[in-house]
Amino acid sequence: MKSDDDDRSMEETDGGRGQQRRVKVLLADDHTMFREGLAGLLASSYVDEVEVVGKTNTGEEAVALAQQTDPDVLIMQVDKPLKQAKDTLKQIREGREGSSSTPPKVVILTMFEDPKLVRKIMELGANAYIHKSASVEELFATVRITALDAEGEHAIVAMPQEALELSEDGIGKDGAGSVLSRRELQILLLTARGMSNSKIGNQLSITEGTVKRHLANIYPKMGVSSRGKAVRMALENEWFTIREIEAAIDKEEA
Amino acid sequence: MAVGAVRVLVAIEPRMYQEVLTFHIRQQRPRSEVVLASAQTLEAEAKQTRPHLILANEVSVSLKEMGLYWVEVHSSDELLNATISADGYSATIPDVSLQDLLAVVDKAEEQLANEE
Predict the structure, then answer these.
(1) Quick count: other Cβ atoms within 10 Å of Cβ B42?
(2) CB under 8 Å to A91, separation ≥6 — which residues?
(3) Which of A41, A133, A213 sits opposite B14 (nearest CB)?
(4) Where are the domains of chain A?
(5) A193 vs chain B: nearest CA distance in angstroms?
(6) Contact A33 B73 (CB under 8 A)
(7) Preceding omega of B14 cis (within 30 degrees of 0)
(8) Which stretches of B1-116 are assigned E, i.e. beta strand?
(9) In A, which residues are within 8 Å of B76 by CB distance?
(10) Is A135 in the B-facing interface, judged by CB distances under 8 Å?
């Protein structure tokens, strides 16, 4: 049975003139530039349709703000590990218990495109999963559709087409692991060839510092602590093969 | 004397970040000229448009040697950080904000005004 709040997004009108009520959005994202920028863009470009009622960079504050501001939709960034997201989503739902209002719909924003991760996040109670390679227009459309889905019967997933080709192990048909970007995989392959950071930088026309930064991002993504372990894991998962490493060395020597 | 528009080449990924950043540069620095590129087209686009400032995830050595202002935006430890090179100095800003990046646009515009 629907509560009075269930249909509020579309049925409330502005003075009987038939205008839809604006969707109240709460924004939770670690990245300050993006969080502030997206809030400003939504408030400016979608002023008649969206009201940004709060923004934060922590899950704890998102829970508190959700209770204070009663948003229709929470746009929330998710990182690995998922425990923090799990706790936040659970508290958001529990926080509304005993209150007459319904919990906000949850739109997850993320950089991850692993199908297993999508499934896990949707199981946590999210209503939509949007990869950050989507456009702001697509995000806005998702917010509107999600707010309209009073019963929360439909899940929306927007991710890169190539991610659909990933297997359940997160391995692409070209052997690329979904956890790493193309550039990171390229750097890992050169690392597997035994090249130093400086040589990798020269090969890719980037600085040694940039190579170090990529490697520093690669290790936690793969859950390893060294070059050797990263290469071993990449080989075990067949993100690249011994033959590819040898072919790359032969090409360089030629 | 009117100062020429500062050309800003934006090649930030993911797309949502690029759109957000571009929107605010155009809105808050309307005199600037914003050109978009992807990581794959950055090099060619930079050589064609000769920007005063590049905002990207990764700027190649050859582009850095062109003597322009550049900003590399990268995520690390859940934060979005930026390495900025402008007017002979460079710095890394942890948890970079929109205002930090708009300040670099201003710097590039100042530099352009001084040159003219």
Answers:
(1) 20
(2) A59, A63
(3) A133
(4) 8-163, 182-253
(5) 22
(6) yes
(7) yes
(8) 7-11, 33-36, 53-56, 69-76, 79-86, 89-93
(9) 213, 216-217
(10) yes
CATH node for A182-253: 1.10.10.10
Task: For residue range B4-55, list pLDDT tens digits in order.
Answer: 799 999 999 999 999 999 999 999 999 999 999 999 999 999 999 999 999 9
Domains of chain B: 7-115 (3.40.50)
More confident residue, A95 or B24: B24
Q: Which tokens is A69 given?
A: 């501001």
Report the residue of chain B nearest A137, measured CA to CA. Answer: B16
Residues in chain A: 254
* Mean pLDDT value of segment B95-112: 95
Which CATH architecture describes the domain A8-163? Answer: 3-Layer(aba) Sandwich (3.40)
Q: What is the ipTM of this complex?
A: 0.94
How many Å apart are CA A3 and CA A25, to the nearest integer? 20
Nearest to B80 among A32, A41, A44 (CB): A32
Query: Closest partner residue to B62 among A41, A131, A205, by Cβ?
Result: A205
